[in-house]
Amino acid sequence: MNIPDILQYMGLIERPRAIR
Questions:
Q1: Which strand (E) or helix (H) includes residue 5?
Q2: Angle at 1 between CA 14 and CA 17, to 5 degrees
Q3: What is the pLDDT of residues 2-19, one digit of tens each?
């Protein structure tokens, strides 16, 4: 897992609307 991957993953969980 890379740093950007974790940020995106956390962002997706915290903000489900960020999926798109």
A1: helix 3-14
A2: 25
A3: 777 777 777 766 666 655
Give dist(CA 1, CA 17) in Å, integer.
22
What helix, strand, coil percent values describe the chain, rounded to 5? Answer: 80, 0, 20
Cβ 2 vs Cβ 8: under 8 Å: no
Max CA pair span of the chain = 22
pTM above 0.85, yes or no: no
For 9, 16, the CA distances from 4, given in Å and listed in that order, are 8, 17
